[in-house]
Amino acid sequence: MRGKVAPSAMQALADLWALGGGDPGALNDITLTGNDPALSSVFRVGTVAQATIAAASLAAAELWRSRTGRRQQVSLSMRDAAVSFRSELYTTVIGHEPEDFFAAVSGYYQTRDDRWVQLHCQFPHLRDGVLKVLGCNNDRAEVEGAVAQWDGLALETRCREDRLCVALIRSPEEWKAHPQAQAIAGLPVFELIKIGEAPPEPLLEDGERPLSGVRVLDLTKVIAGPVCGRTLASHGAEVIRIGAKHLPFLEPLVMDTGFGKRSAFLDLREDSERETLRGMARGADVFVQGYRPGTITERGFSPNDVAALRPGIVYVTLSAYGHEGPWKAWRGFDSLTQCASGIVHEGMMAAGTGKPHPLPCQALDHGTGYLAAFGAMLALKKRAEEGGSWMVRVSLAQTGRWVDGLGRVDGMAVKNPEATDINDLLEQHDSPWGKVSHVKSPEILSETPPRWVLGPVPLGTHPAAWS
């Protein structure tokens, strides 16, 4: 958007709202305050945070109006929204030192042809696969030496052959010319698609919160998908996170995104446990999945499969690079998508350090998570009024393209808030780890303020059944 006037957060919200087919009059019920730069970046990260959280909040208010006939006022400051996009950095168990969950050999490395790559080695199988390709031990100095023997594009290509998570840091111009960028260039930032017929299902009239009585299956991990489930829980949904004992996880992220949820294990390699999930899906309203594209379909839980099991389902699907293009089946994470799509390179140029410079938060993850929750609530309203089964489709790359389109700001000198700067935004919950201090929901709803009834729990704490 260079050379154009950047949209305000309110305009960005209005655009999202119109894309989802929301009632234009509802925009009169929300107040947004503050301006970018909210965090240290040339990108309008505060606008991204405020617009996506506001969209989800306004959708919750509209569900409340659908349920009760009453409007309520919504307000959100940009500062509070931006802090929420950094929530995992502030979540701590009181009395314990924060855990560093970054793997020793994850990070940025220079290649033989003077390029930079990022190695994402947060999970053991991804780390071991990268080390095998490089032919070295789990030692950062050895990895630096091994990466320096490769050209950047060749290393990215070789690692992706083994479904590993490595990204070449591209310039914005390189990304725009890339076949994957071109494949998603015509896609909206999120999609809401009817995928089946079903009778209307009005929301419960006696619910105390916008999503009272709504059941959500959360088959996601890391940040984006779990933020979707956490957001739905904050507005009253019953959310159960389904994982598997054999899959790796990052406990600090489980803690940060686990508020309001129960958690169960199901091994979808087993027929009996797939049948358990089918039974739960029949009782669900929302099915959220964020596994590598094709994985959940292979287990019998594609959008059409789940809509056949449960007519009227809202199926939310998240991916890294989108559902079209040569990279559509590749796994990925926020940081890798930032690298591949020019965001890290542009940050590096703005910082003037000659070293990779990512966004000051996992903005693609958090933004995609809130957009997913926004789409799910829009779909629930459509289901109540029109009937049908609905699919919400989002990706980190589509969110990144939207972020790029919001323009730039002179924000590199901004100081990002430390935990001591945000005491007014912190609250505490009990958990099996101890008392957890964390960022509360940043938005204010006049009748149904968002809140989490449950604190986070370790994965697999509960049975795989609705309460």
Short description:
With 467 residues, the protein is of the alpha/beta class.
Strand content bin: 5-15%
End-to-end gap: 48 Å
Fraction in helix: 25-40%
At CATH level 3, the topology of one domain is Rossmann fold
Indicate the CATH class of one domain.
Answer: Alpha Beta
Going by CATH, what is the homologous superfamily of one domain?
A: Crotonobetainyl-coa:carnitine coa-transferase, domain 1
Write down the Rg.
Answer: 21 Å
Give an overview of the whole structure.
Helices cover 38% and strands 15% of the residues. The N and C termini lie far apart (48 Å). The protein is globular. The protein has a domain at 9-99 and 183-324 and 359-445: Rossmann fold, CATH 3.40.50.10540. Strands 7-13-12-11-8-9-10 form a seven-stranded mixed β-sheet. Helix 2 (45-68) crosses helix 3 and helix 10 crosses helix 17. Strand 8 (215-219), helix 10 (224-234) and strand 9 (238-243) form a beta-alpha-beta unit. With 467 residues, it is α/β, with parallel strands linked by helices. It is built from 18 helices and 16 strands.
Keywords summarizing the entry:
seven-stranded mixed sheet; single chain; 467 residues; 15% strand; 16 strands; 38% helix; three-stranded mixed sheet; Rossmann fold
List the helices and strands and how they pair.
Elements: H1 9-19, E1 30-33, H2 45-68, E2 74-77, H3 78-84, H4 87-90, E3 92-93, E4 107-110, E5 116-119, H5 124-134, H6 140-147, H7 152-161, E6 166-168, H8 172-177, H9 179-184, E7 191-196, E8 215-219, H10 224-234, E9 238-243, H11 251-256, E10 261-265, H12 271-282, E11 286-289, H13 295-298, H14 303-309, E12 314-319, H15 334-340, H16 343-351, H17 363-386, E13 389-395, H18 396-405, E14 426-429, E15 436-439, E16 444-445
